[in-house]
Amino acid sequence: MVQRHQKNKMASEQPLKKKLRRGNSSNSADETDFIHITENGVANDLSAFHLFPANVNEDDITLNAVNLEFHGSKSVFRTSELSESDEKCIEDKTEDDRKDYPTSSCYSNAHITSCENISLQAAPNMVICTNFGKKNEQETEDLNKQQMMVDPEGEETETFHSYLVKQCLCGIPDRVLRKPFEGHQIIDENGSRLAMLSEWSTQQVLQFLSNVQLLFDVYLKQNNNGHICSQIVNICNIFVHNEHNLVEQILSLCETRDKYVNYLAAKVFSSFLIIAKTYINNEWLETIVSFLTIENTDYVKMNFALEIIKRVVEWKNVDIHVLEEPQSADVAGSSTQNVDININCVTVPYSDAESYDTSGIKGLIIKSLESKWPELINKVQYLITHNSSVEAQTCVLTFLALWESTISVKANLSVIDTKPFYAHLENFVGMLNSNLPPIIWKQLLSLFNEVLCYGSTLALQDMLPEDTCQLAHLIVRYVKDFRLLDSLPYRRSEGYTVNSFVGTIPSTQPTQSNIDKTLLQKMILLVLKSVAITIKETRSDSSDSSVGSEDYDFSHDMQLIARSIRDVLKKVDVFVKVSLEFHPETPFSKILIHLFSDQDDYMIEAMVCTLDIKTGISYQTPLAPDFIAMLNPVHSFIEFLKIVSHDAEILLDYLVSNETCFLLYLLRFLKYTRRNWDVFVSSCYEGGASRTNELDNTMTVLIRLKIQIDRLVSKNLFPYNINPVLRLLEICENLYEGNEYS
Amino acid sequence: MFAIIQIDNDVSGREFRRKMRPKYEFICKYCQRKFTKSYNLMIHERTHKSPELTFSCEVCGRGFKRQDNLKQHRCNQCIWR
């Protein structure tokens, strides 16, 4: 039923890289997979995607030609907003310029409201009560006189949408299938013709893009499950082969000055890249990255490009949602959803790893980005220091988020491919000062925290990368010598509000909270990681030396480092106590746990850091008693157990999930406890201010945890090898029992 | 200055191999970062992938990542649990 045969419709668009998907392909490694369903005959009915009249050779239309067509005709988005002089400005441009325009001067206010930061422009179907809205309505009316839409959107789009919601397009009549993708007939001075996507009304474009996005979402979800509806495969393949230049048209939608269209077009385009993988035209990627470095910065285009790249880099295969029952349960009628799944859907198996391996497209897009990186870094640095407009700041924030995603361990990118992106970090540390807006502070701190991926990676490595260590040193130095903590804008000032989701933003409606806790958390975690990395690096350097005489130097170095680390941690201690209004005598371990109480991943990573700082720094170095007490890991653990209500099941969930680095923490904490049993026991007695027996409380949780792990292991249900932790739990239990009876 | 290590029995042979082992033996298949201990690599690699479904319903067999999700779960067959 399913035939794969070579079909390359893109004349100048050879696949950049295509690995051999199946062993039975005999032609070449560049062969393109194409699924051709003969039974339904829909694959042949490609007219569904014809946006051009029959006399236009669609294969000849290049991106420039599309733009030419787009700019040459009167667009519903532009003509309405532009004055005559502006139109002349566009007409005067040469064809070569067309790719890069519009410049900000030509498009100063088109469709962008002058609203502040987060406020949104009303959706096109909402009643707009401003003057701007009235003006817009008037202009649309005028426009309709010029261009009559012969066939307004009918029921077909809705039918198509309802089939998509049911996740199957089998049995959909051709007429209905075709309609949502067909251009609308328009009549203008040149007669009747099919409108380009950019000439559709905003509502029609949004409807079209939403349907395409839903189509791609269904494809990706079914791909993850291993079987895709054959009709969905057909339609997606038509997109991938770009048989009707829909890709260029979607790309050209970034010219529109409508926030909704821009947002959706970027979303659709990134999903398209994830589906097409390496079977793409290099020109598309070049066009996107060229938006990043246009001389007269076009913030809308720049943000459009950054969003696309960010979404591709961040892409992870979809997990089935917790509340989503498997299909069998739906058929059995237990589902409360009103959606009937078509049992007769003709599906195509798509379960081979390559069909959802996105490393190829991620690699390509990272390579394209790398070529523009130094230029882009300069541009963003300039924007941070010289441009405080909302548009510029939005670009800066998206750029920083993209940077963070690129170097994130979770992006699953090769460390070799991402090496160039570690180069300019230090320039941005110097930008952390009190003049920097809090929202950019937050994004920069997130970026640095991601670079110093301690709990997931660096804590586990013996040799740390040099550029990462340099960033850690710099942070430590800035805290110690340049009062970095004091310049953190965590206190809300006049005209700002602390939004729990976004951070500190300008607003006339202040919230009750006066403190941006997220900013505090990110800053403190960053300092703790930097300190832990500095100590780890010093220790691993010394372990390399094979000559005994260097032991003295190491010890001397370590003492110097211990002194400055003590200085830094004292500063952190005082800073958190002042900012969160703790009593000056509150133990450091307690304030740390409370600072991070609503952010468990930060809390556990901070615990790994303090544990490693303690074990790293006290190795061969005598420490001041107050410093030892400050870093006592047992006190932190006791506080942590209070936060999780001494519930062993929560600890088990932490161990099984990978959302935190609890496995690493528990392993190291138990090793520490085994080595320092006396310290553990005495700390338990001195830890609680109340007269409760913390030793018994703590050990009860650990023993319960051991029993639960044991139960899962005996049924072969534990997802990985937990034996090292299990053995340590047993040893600690034995020590406890021995201790009790001695 | 130099000592010749003689490998004459199993113990010293093992010791020799341990010393001569290349420093980075374990490379992450996702990001190519290097680790010296296999367990450390395993801990690191967990960051890259979604966790497996550990907790399963005894009635319908459906798997969950977390116990609380299993407890919340109610399907047609399991409603009378």
From TrEMBL, chain A:
Domain Protein Lines N-terminal: 349-684
Record-annotated Protein Lines C-terminal domain positions: 698-734
Region (Disordered): 1-29
InterPro entries, sorted: Lines_C (IPR029415), LINES_N (IPR032794), Protein_Lines (IPR024875)
Stored PANTHER family: PROTEIN LINES HOMOLOG 1, WINS1, 2 PROTEIN
Protein name: Protein lines
From TrEMBL, chain B:
Record-annotated C2H2-type domain positions: 26-53, 55-74
Any one GO MF annotation of this record: DNA-binding transcription factor activity, RNA polymerase II-specific
SUPFAM superfamilies: beta-beta-alpha zinc fingers
Signal peptide: none
Localization of this protein: Nucleus
InterPro entries: C2H2-ZF_Transcription_Reg, Znf_C2H2_sf, Znf_C2H2_type
GO cellular component, one term: nucleus
Keywords: Metal-binding, Nucleus, Repeat, Transcription, Transcription regulation, Zinc, Zinc-finger
Main location: nucleus
Domain of life, source organism: Eukaryota
PANTHER family per UniProt: ODD-SKIPPED - RELATED, PROTEIN BOWEL
Record's protein name: C2H2-type domain-containing protein
Organism: Zophobas morio
